Amino acid sequence: MKAISFQSITKQYDSPKGSVRALSNVSFDIEPGEFFGLLGPNGAGKTSLISILAGLSAASDGRVTVHGHDVQKDFAQARRTLGIVPQELVFDPFFSVRETLRIQSGYFGIRQNDDWIDELLHNLGLTDKAGANMRQLSGGMKRRVLVAQALVHRPPVIVLDEPTAGVDVELRQTLWQFVARLNKQGHTVLLTTHYLEEAEALCSRVAMLKQGKVVALQRMSELLGASTSNVLKFKIDAILPEILAAKARVTGRIVQLPASNAAEIESYLTVLREAGLYPEDVEIRRPDLEDVFLEVMARGDVPQEFVA
Ligand SMILES: Nc1ncnc2c1ncn2[C@@H]1O[C@H](COP(=O)(O)OP(=O)(O)O)[C@@H](O)[C@H]1O
Ligand SMILES: [Mg+2]
């Protein structure tokens, strides 16, 4: 039995202005107990795929099962198996945190759930907010409640759609510790995120979507090991010469340049020297997930606009 099975999923949104093909023939399986990353630029189709998985929107073609339950034909069973943390913050502002979680428990027919609710509140750093109304909470706190809400019925499969977008570092760490522990206890996790460092640290396997198509599906270790190029990394205070700027990933003073061999590294350093620039903290490292992601997305002839 697969935890999740996407079988030839196609999704088309039709409107009077025309139609958008958000997903084309997407197929892959997630095994029970996996920590799986679904990555891709904005608009790649990640949320569309998760909405279909959640049974919230119907695929134009294809089929999804969760623990063998078809998400359309066997909605109740599939829904019970899933805990979904949606990308959008949706909640009722008039209920307190605890009420919100009790109502969600009731929705799954669970009556006495306060022990588990207390444990969720504790693990998500929400204990002192239990009595607060949802509208009084900051964005980060609301996000924590959404996570708790997804978990009230102890679902074996947990799906998180950009759970750390716009969230502070502390919550990110609290959340990842908790989700990693649930995964160790046997829960399957499907995660989408723009934070590729987080995905690299957490996920054992990933799929990359580009314009609604699967363009990579691999174990994390294979994905990182397969790249033939290394990365030249250094710090610099000046503006980079144009020829390097075109190839570089620049974050403040940190510059990172993919280099397929020693000669290329030498040529980069020569360009800097001839421009009278002196890089500091020079190192050569293996590519990380962000490098691989950029490489995969740059491949092929499909024009891309994306946020990494
Ligand atoms: N309800 C909708 N109606 C029309 N187009 C949509 C709708 N939802 C998403 N899309 C389009 O489908 C594509 C994929 O979007 P989405 O699934 O949200 O991607 P991602 O989550 O990867 O950013 C985008 O082109 C988006 O504009
Ligand atoms: Mg999305």
What would you note in describing this structure?
Helix 6 links the parallel strand 7 (157-161) and strand 8. Among the domains are: 4-81 and 155-224, Rossmann fold, CATH 3.40.50; 228-286, 2-Layer Sandwich (Alpha-Beta Plaits). The model is unreliable at 301-308 (pLDDT under 50). Helix 3 (97-107) packs parallel to helix 5. It is globular. The two termini are 34 Å apart. The chain has 308 residues and is of the alpha/beta class. Strands 6-7-8-3-9-10 form a 6-stranded mixed β-sheet, with helices on both faces. The chain contains 11 helices and 14 strands. The chain has helices spanning 46-53, 75-81, 97-107, 114-123, 139-151, 169-184, 196-202, 220-226, 242-245, 262-274, 289-298; strands at residues 4-15, 18-30, 35-39, 61-66, 69-70, 82-85, 157-161, 188-192, 205-210, 213-219, 230-235, 249-251, 254-259, 280-285. Bound molecules: adenosine-5'-diphosphate (ADP) and magnesium ion (MG). The site of adenosine-5'-diphosphate has 11 residues, from strand 2 and helix 1.
What is the gyration radius calculated from CA atoms?
22 Å
CATH architecture of the domain at 4-81 and 155-224, please? 3-Layer(aba) Sandwich
Largest sheet composition = 6 strands, mixed
Strand content: 25-35%
